[in-house]
Each structure stands twice: as C-alpha cells, then as structure tokens.
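User: ABC transporter ATP-binding protein, Umezawaea endophytica:
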Amino acid sequence: MTPVLEIRDLSVDYGQGEGAVHAVSSVNLVLNRGEVLGLAGESGSGKSTLAYAMTRLLPPPGIITGGEVLHHGRDKPAPVDVLGLSPKQLRSFRWNDIAIVFQGAMNSLNPVSTVASQLEDIYRAHRPEMSRAQRTKRSAELLRLVGISADRLGSYPHQLSGGMRQRVMIAMALALDPEIIIMDEPTTALDVVMQRQILEQMMRLREELGFSVLFITHDISLLVEFSDRIAIMYAGRIVEQAASEDMYRASSHPYSKGLLGSFPALHGPRRPLTGIPGSPPDMRSVPSGCPFHPRCPSAFDVCEREIPVLEKLSGTNGDSSRSVACWLNTPSLSGHPGVGAT
Ligand code: SF4
Ligand code: MG
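Assistant: Predicted structure for ABC transporter ATP-binding protein:
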C-alpha cells in the first residue's frame, strides 16, 4: 500500500499559554492510496479539528503547534509538507489534490447562486483555460455522476432536497478530480436511508475514480460498513487503529470496545448493548495519564499517571496492522496477558 497522506506527530491547540486546550495531541495517521480510512470518536474528540488542521482550514484560535502533513502527490517526485505551502500553493492543493465535504451542506452552498454557477466557479478559478461550453458540459457530467439530473443545474440550493444538496457538495468536491476526499459527518443531517444511499454512491465513485477517503463520523456502524480501516480518537489522541473487520470482530482498546458495544450487531447473533459509562472529558482539564481512565472498566494504578503511547500489537492472529494505546498492552506493567492475547 502506498500512502497518499501521512500525518506525523500533529498537534493542535486552541488558545495559548496556561489556558490552551490541547485539541489534538501528537497524532500519527496514514491514508493509503484508494482506501477509505474511517475516523471515529465522540464529539469533541478532535476529529474535525484534525481535518481542519490537515487542510490548513483551522479557524482561530486554533494553532498547529507541531508536526507534518506529508502529501505524496500522484506526479510529484517527493512528498510535500502541506503545513509549509504558500497561500497560492494551498489554494491549488485544496481543490486539485484534496477536497472536503462538510456536514450541513446548506451552510456550505451559496444560497443566492445556482448549482451551475457554483460548479462553474470552481473551473473559472482553477481551470481558466476551459471555455464556457466546456465548463457547462463538465458541470452537467458531475451532477450525473452523483445521481442528479442535469436539468437541476439551474436550481438554487433551497429548491433541492437535503440529500440533493449533499450530492451537489460531493459533485463540487469531485470537480477537479482530487486524490483525497475528506468527509466530515457528511450525512448526519439526513435520514438513515438517504445516508446509506449517498455513502454507497460515494464508494462506487471511489472504485471508478480511485480517490482515497478520510471518512469522519461518530456513527461507528456506518464506519464499520464503509471503511477499510478505522482509527478511533479519544481526547485528541488516536487510541486504536485496525482494519475495519478486525476492529468490528475484536477491538482491543477499552474505549473502542465501548464504542462498538453501543450499537447493534450488523450481522450474526444479537449481542447485548453495553455503551460507555460517564461522558467525554472536558478538554480544558483532561484527566492525567490515560485520559480514558475515569471511565475505563479495566483501569489500574499506572493508568492514572502515565499516558500510554500508540504501539503496534504483535502476535495477534497475524493482524499486524493493529495499533493500540493502552497500558493493558504492556504485560510487565499490568500483570495482564495483553489486550491482543486470545
Ligand atoms: Fe483503560 Fe488503562 Fe488502557 Fe487507559 S491505559 S484504556 S485506563 S486500561
Ligand atoms: Mg466534528
């Protein structure tokens, strides 16, 4: 697998000095070419902050305090650090290489502009060599690609259903054939049937066009169904990463177990819904040590003092791609055989 985007040790604060909130702490994450990487976690866990930071769209008082975001471009000889791009390079990177579909399409579309002119604006800005006729033709193709008839080109956003607006957002994201699409809670405002339709279509487009997807949601059942791999965040850190199947069959981190235990099984026998006691931490005063310790049913003495690092789990049923940040994984400390042991 070849990486297309590599996040290294990325940290983001809101505010500075004593009162700074560490929204994202030393996150390492790799998005491979052509894959769907799911990012899960309760609200406030840092998922969206991470997406904003890696595209340099972080609103103030958000500050990137460290790390790199390496883009391994299709035709580039060496990776480029997105955090070092000039404003001009960044504009080109954002539409040509990476595009974002945010939640709540109504707020992202211009209410006084037709679908056609919003699509064509992208071409006017980024493909000035295209003729008017080419822009119109391409815009109609894009709409068809996302399952909307081309006679909707003249519609204003308020004349479209919520699902159609979200599809228009996807069409806009696809306009310049980017390598990476970030979907941040792309379908939360829609009903369940519509959510599924849109995601299924997105996955078909991915097969056809070959882009990679970073799919962010708090809905773990959608993630399990649509992602190849899943990373789980808690209090600004990745606590577990594994292939989607492995995560679903046997998650290792107590928090992942809680998240996965809080939705009904997709296949196979029914299992009891367990959920997670307590609520996500106040990011202004994150618990010491493992931030999950006040809610963790398996916490022991060291958990309160030391922050566990994300480490590859070895020797677990040939599943070498799993990494977990939990002290249970250090048998010498926990007296426990290790979270991956079966
Ligand atoms: Fe629970 Fe300790 Fe593991 Fe944190 S490190 S998840 S508190 S067992
Ligand atoms: Mg969010």
